[in-house]
Design goal:
The protein has one domain. Helices cover 72% and strands 0% of the residues.
């Protein structure tokens, strides 16, 4: 018999706050890297000559971002998405509509991603996540050993690609140089339709970057799903035990020349540390501010694209290529703090963020209750 309750969104009271905290903190890392490396300048500039940084502060900030945050924040987001998909899958176990609902969930995300990718910002990650989700979803029907085996195979293939990249995957240096020159002109001075046309023109180049990390995304999704299925996510004290060794090992691999593997291990250590701390009473008081932000991560992620697009592109303030790393990051921190405050205020009155509500309503095929009842709010 199908449980009606099983085919409804998770009530706020049943959410795992520590996971929301981790998602909210990971969003800062994603925001910082997107802002400094993709909104401020062309994402492809890093493949040419390194940017000359005159300011010692800029050099220090760049070092922190690239060594401690850059790909680790994206890895954390991938782990969380995989865990979230597994949570949804297990919660719908008694619903006859489980497969249909989860396929619809990913299809709706894919639609959001394509709109975001084409109309707002081509650095979008939602499209890749939806496509990877379609590959991971069938594996969730299998046992834990299959999930972890598939994760290890995916990550092993990704690591192998670092030394043996597929021929023709990356565009030539000439193509990249031309794109960077055009980006510096069009993103900085173009109107909305100029920027839109160039954004669409860049999609083949952007696709090559996603293709290079796609196996890593799948592997991390599966690791996140395994962490949930095995109970690791729910074991706060156990996470604290493994956090420091994982961070130490990840840093050693990173500085020992094994950066791709070190990034993954370091991200696992970060996740274990934050989840473990957030599961403690003192940790909740220390990190609880990030939970509302994490519950509205979808809305906040897209809002950042809209805000930063207006700040840096020609149809807004046109600051593309004109700010240093520290100045750009200061703007990002201000936006992030505003989103922390806005998310907390919004969730006092509403059950979900605006895009989270729309995503759930389209997934379940019916309008979800949005306004928080007085009893729940109290």
């Amino acid at each position: 018999m199908t449980s009606d309750r099983a085919a409804t969104p998770i009530p706020s009271a049943e959410r795992i706050d520590a996971v929301d905290v981790l998602r909210g903190i990971a969003l800062f890392g994603v925001m910082a890297i997107n802002l400094v490396m993709e909104f401020r300048v062309s994402i492809f500039e890093q493949f040419l000559a390194p940017e000359t940084l005159a300011s010692p502060i800029d050099r220090a900030v760049e070092t922190v971002l690239t060594q401690a945050i850059e790909l680790k924040a994206f890895a954390l987001f991938s782990l969380l998405f995989g865990a979230g998909l597994a949570i949804q899958f297990d919660r719908l176990a008694h619903s006859e509509r489980r497969t249909m609902l989860l396929v619809r969930r990913l299809a709706v995300l894919l639609g959001f991603g394509i709109v975001h990718l084409c109309l707002i910002w081509n650095g979008d990650i939602l499209t890749e996540y939806a496509l990877a989700g379609f590959i991971v979803l069938p594996l969730l029907f299998g046992p834990r050993w299959l999930i972890v085996l598939a994760a290890l195979v995916s990550l092993a293939l990704y690591l192998a690609m670092q030394d043996f990249p597929p021929e023709g995957l990356f565009p030539s240096r000439t193509v990249i140089s031309r794109d960077v020159m055009d980006a510096n002109r069009i993103y900085a001075t173009g109107n909305f339709f100029d920027v839109l046309a160039f954004r669409l023109h860049e999609l083949p180049l952007i696709a090559s970057l996603h293709a290079f990390v796609f196996l890593r995304t799948i592997g991390l999704f599966l690791l996140g799903a395994f962490a949930w299925r095995s109970g690791i996510v729910q074991n706060g004290r156990g996470l604290l035990v493994i956090a420091l060794p994982a961070i130490t090992l990840g840093a050693a691999l990173l500085y020992g020349g094994m950066e791709p593997l070190g990034t993954i291990v370091l991200a696992l250590g970060y996740g274990a540390a934050i989840l473990g701390i957030a599961s403690l009473k003192r940790g909740k008081r220390l990190l609880g501010w990030a939970a509302p932000l994490g519950r509205m991560a979808f809305t906040n992620y897209v809002a950042q694209s809209v805000i930063f697009g207006w700040i840096f592109y020609g149809y807004g303030l046109g600051l593309f290529g004109r700010l240093g790393i520290t100045e750009a990051l200061a703007i990002g921190i201000a936006v992030y703090i505003a989103q922390v405050l806005f998310s907390a205020l919004w969730l006092r009155h509403y059950r979900y963020g605006p895009l989270e509500w729309l995503w759930r309503s389209l997934m379940y095929g019916e309008r979800q209750p949005m306004v928080m009842s007085k009893a729940v709010a109290a």
